[in-house]
Amino acid sequence: MLKPFYQEKLLEAGCDEAGRGSFAGPVFAAAVILPMDFYHPLLNDSKLLTAEERNELKPIIKRTALAYAVAMVDHNEIDQINILQASFKAMHLAVDKLRKKPSLLLIDGNRFVPYKNLRHECIIKGDGLFASIAAASVLAKTHRDAYMKQLHNEFPQYNWKSNKGYGTPEHRDAIQVHGLCKYHRKSFAIDPAQYALFGEEGEVGSDD
Q: pLDDT, tens digit, for every residue of 149-189?
């Protein structure tokens, strides 16, 4: 069962991103402040949920949260500043947009660039431990999936409505046939010889 909060004194926001390992499109991040008594039996790390479960949770999280926000950094900026920094920036942008300001950020992962003067805690696999981070993972994932489905309409040959831009065999084959398009991340080594490297890092897959 997810823990409802990290501590009891400070207002905390969970933060997570989606799309870090994708070959194409933006990285999304969400920040969510939940009531301390929030509970939903489906809520978990978004990677462990089906698309239907994530879409069921999305409006519940938005309706129940004390505050939430979603932000993105596009493929061009990812190429300019690198994907790790882009992920941190997307989280910062999401926190910027919160209508209620937290005093503590719970960050999924082991690294983060501090946001202004706010305290933060990096929590490895935090989206499977704390409700607010899990909620952020669901919002980031569902918003990004919807965005990639829109991009699919412009470049259907890559089937982004299914693979969401990740380096699936289908997507790799399409790149070999059609080459790269304007939404692919040019700073990524999107070359057949490099695919094994991405796989070893756990960056390839239809979920994030």
A: 999 999 999 999 999 999 999 999 999 999 999 999 999 87
- What pLDDT is stored for residue 192 in this prediction? 56
Closest residue by Cα to residue 208 from 66, 30, 39, 34: 30
Neighbours of 55 (CB within 10 A): 15
Task: State the DSSP H helix or E strand holding residue 200, giving kind and residue range, or none if neither.
Answer: helix 195-200
Cα distances (Å, whole numbers) of residue 48 to 84, 110, 127, 136, 176: 23, 20, 10, 14, 31
d(CA 102, CA 97): 11
Q: Which domains does the chain have, with CATH numbers?
A: 12-200 (3.30.420.10)
* Contact present, 107 and 121 (Cβ < 8 Å): yes
Query: E-strand spans in the chain?
Result: 12-18, 27-33, 67-73, 104-108, 119-123
Beta-carbon contacts of 141 under 8 Å, excluding residues fewer than 6 positions away, are: 18, 28, 46, 54, 207, 208
Read off the pLDDT of residues 113-129 as tens digits, 9 standing for 90 and up.
999 999 999 999 999 99
Q: Cα-Cα-Cα-Cα dihedral of 128, 198, 86, 15, to 10°?
A: 0
Residues 15 and 108 sit within 8 Å (Cβ to Cβ): yes
Length of the chain: 208
Strands 27-33 and 67-73: antiparallel
Q: Do the Cβ atoms of 99 and 72 come closer than 8 Å?
A: no
* 151/158 Cα distance (integer angstroms): 10
